[in-house]
Amino acid sequence: MKFLHLESNKLTGHIPHVLSKATSLMTLNLKDNTLSGPIPLWISLLSTLRVLLLKGNQLEDSIPLHLCQLKSIRILDLSHNHFSGIIPFCLDNITFGREASLIDDTFSTDVEYSIDEVSLMPFHDSQLSVYTALGVNFEVSAESEKIEFITKNRSESYMGHIFMSGLDLSGNKLTGPIPPEIGNLSGIHTLNLSYNQLIGSIPETFSNLKEIESLDLSHNGLMGQIPPQMVELNFLSVFTVAHNNLSGKTPERKFQFATFERSSYEGNPLLCGLPLERSCTPISAPPTVKPLVSNNRENNSWEAIFLWSFGGSYGVAFLGIVAFLYLNSSYRDLLFYFIGKHVPFFRLWG
Q1: Most buried in the list 111, 157, 201, 257, measured by CB within 10 Å?
Q2: Cβ-proximal residues to 130 (8 Å cutoff; 6+ apart), any chain
Q3: What are the tens digits of pLDDT across the range 151-175?
Q4: In a shared domain, residues 193 and 312
Q5: What is the number of other CB atoms lying within 10 angstroms of the CB of residue 211?
Q6: Which is higher by pLDDT, 104 or 328?
Q7: Mean of the per-residue pLDDT values for the chain?
Q8: What's the Cα-to-Cα distance from 155 to each of 30, 59, 147, 241, rounded to whole Å?
Q9: In whole angstroms, what separates CA 190 from the centre of its chain?
């Protein structure tokens, strides 16, 4: 058995151990079921796997290191499960379409693909293999092998030789930084790490993803600047880092990055530059200085008014007391008697 498709059923429980004996499997498709538990250790025995689709289950625990032993995989889809922990740094052991894997003749014809379930199936007599089962002859062609994989934000169906390569870990609970080793996947076409809890910066090694066509890092907690070297990714047609904590200036608007709209960057409060409306030009100092000067002048005028009013009040009060004593001789004599008795200077002078 080389191709096993059990997607979109109601399969439950763990991934069955009996599959460990299917060491000739090239495609294992178990997506959109309700399988649970971790990815089993014996998965590393399926050394001929080219496509592993486990999307849309309830698988949990961390992404195991022994998955990195499947070096010939071209498409690995673990999205929309309950995986937690960090992204294994050893994923760069998998070829994901690097030159060494291009000689792979697993599928016998060039790729034909279609959008939204409509498939084009090339047919060449020279590629047919004849099998016999229960006395009935039937023909099986590698061209009839159909793979569906989300890339460039749409579902595409691939027939025949799978040239596309991709890694989808979106919709899980992965934490920690993105390993710089992911940037060594120079032959990968699609990379989706969105809707996780990843932190840290975008690795500068991502500028080595020379074949990348779709890169989605949105809805995480990534920080720091978008590496400016990424503008050299000439095949990138879908790019989004929306809804992170990125800061600094957006990449220069040239080559492919000139085509990306505001939606690729939105949800990063500290990110500035086109195509965002937030400018990276610092606000000039004079507008902030002028109000301070006017405030100081206003404060000084109020202080002068207070001092003049305070002095005037005391002057009026003093003159009032003098006039009162001048007009009332009894109070004036009583005041002089009090001063002469209690103040030594006036007592000696008297």
Answers
A1: 257
A2: 137, 139
A3: 655 545 444 445 689 999 999 999 9
A4: no
A5: 18
A6: 328
A7: 79
A8: 17, 22, 10, 20
A9: 16
Per residue in 61-115, pLDDT tens?
A: 999 999 999 999 999 999 999 999 999 999 999 989 775 444 454 444 333 333 3
Number of C-beta neighbours around residue 252 at 10 A: 13
Helix (H) or strand (E) holding 60: strand 58-62
Contact of 173 with 62, CB cutoff 8 Å: no
Within a domain: 280: no
- Phi and psi angles of residue 219, each rounded to the nearest 5 degrees, phi first: 60, 55
Which structural domain range is residue 60 located in?
Answer: 3-199
Global pTM? 0.70
- Mark whether 61 and 161 lie in a shared domain: yes
Q: Does residue 115 sit within a domain?
A: yes
Q: How many domains would you assign to the chain?
A: 2
Q: Which two tokens stand for residue 180?
A: 């710089």
pLDDT of residue 110: 39
Judge if 195 and 55 occupy the same domain.
yes
pLDDT value of residue 79: 97
Q: At which residue do the structure tokens 């084009």 appear?
A: 120
Q: Does 293 have pLDDT greater than 70?
A: no
Last residue of a domain, one of 199, 222, 253: 199
CA distance 108 to 17: 30
Do 180 and 46 fall within a single domain? yes
Give a yes or no: residue 228 inside a domain.
no
